[in-house]
Amino acid sequence: MSTVEKALAAALYAEGDESLDTAASLLAADPSADAELRRRGEELLRRAWERGWQPADVLRLVRRDLDDAHERLAAGLVTAESRAYGDRLAPRWRAQLADVADHEPYRADRFTHATSVLQLYRLLARLPAIEPVAPPPGAPLTAIASAHEPRMLTRVRALLAKAEATGYPEEAEALTAKAQELMARHSIDEAVLAHGAHSKDAPSACRIGVDAPYETAKAVLLDAVASANRCRAVWNSAFGFSTVVGFEGDLEAVELLYTSLLVQGAGAMTKAESAQRAGGRRRTKTFRQSFWTAYASRLGEHLAAVAEEQVTADLLPVLATREVAVADHADRMFPETTRTRVRGATDLDGWRDGTSAADRARREPHSPRKRLR
């Protein structure tokens, strides 16, 4: 049995620091084991990909359950493992690898390094199977390319970036409104074109991180954004993400708008808390929880109204066909789901400030649901 085999047997499937220290000592004393240790890590990653995981999922879980050292180790391992696939990677996978490349390498003495590696491998070895949203890397890329217009998404990104950066609520409102209008109109145009051409375009899925704290409210917000863009979201609270099912152009719209609304909401909450402190009140967890709950609830109402405004009677059959396709795809991916009770707001000031922030981020002054399952 090699040094790596002995170390992994001692560390991966046993609990307690003593077995981990013993395994790390074995590895630290044998530099010739480094290459095999790296190869075993890549094998664990490959098994994770086959079980439905993707780079962003793994890094998110490592960041949540371990620490910065393990995240940097995981990033280096993902980068090294991905080189074997060449160009046989889907666009979303390549985008995630680009984000992973931003991490600095992890450096430490041999014993500390070996301990961190074994802790990371223990997490990877215990990853369960999850619903796949794409074939594993290296598989034939058979998916039909999206017909959405890149220039539209570029314009939307620019509008949302300005909305996040401005210090004027009215300007942020107008910019967010324009971005949502562009996305809604484009989604309808794409549906009509696909219907007229009898396109074989089919729904797909992606995962979007829903990070603590206040993750329930954030999951509700993501569900509202998904529903407004004719997608369905299913939240996995254990692993901190929602799987969003829809047509490709709509999925990108959901990612863009959700991220922007999170940034705008965080900024609005900071300002609201400053006002509360100026009034002699210390900021509290209940204030923030109530703020996010109100923000998500009110935006859900606004986004639903915006989506309905864009639809005319002649478009209903076309959109209904796509909605059925999305629902069928989601039901196949998640044949069994449960509903989660959303915690109510208990801080009146937080609820009021969250509602006001949602009103500022809404579509337009004259205009006019997480499906937590």
Number of strands: 3
Radius of gyration: 23 Å
Low-confidence parts, pLDDT < 50 over ≥5 residues? Answer: 143-149, 363-373
> Helix/strand/pairing class, anyone?
mainly alpha
Helix content: 55-70%
| Gross morphology | globular
Strand content: under 5%
Q: State the separation between the terminal residues, measured CA to CA.
A: 47 Å
Oligomer: single chain
Strand order of the largest sheet: 1-3-2
Major sheet details: 3 strands, antiparallel
Helix-strand sequence: HHHHHHHHHEHEEHHHH
Number of helices: 14
Q: Report the average pLDDT across residues.
A: 81
Please tag this protein with its features.
single chain, 373 residues, mainly alpha, three-stranded antiparallel β-sheet, 14 helices, 3 strands, 5% strand, globular, disordered C terminus
Task: Write up what this structure looks like.
With 373 residues, the protein is mainly alpha-helical. Helices cover 63% and strands 5% of the residues. The protein is built from 14 helices and 3 strands. Strands 1-3-2 form a 3-stranded antiparallel sheet. A hairpin with a 4-residue loop joins strand 2 and strand 3. Helix 3 packs across helix 5. The radius of gyration is 23 Å and the shape is globular. The C terminus is likely disordered.
Q: What's the short version?
A:
The chain is mainly alpha-helical and 373 residues long. 63% of the residues lie in helices and 5% in strands.
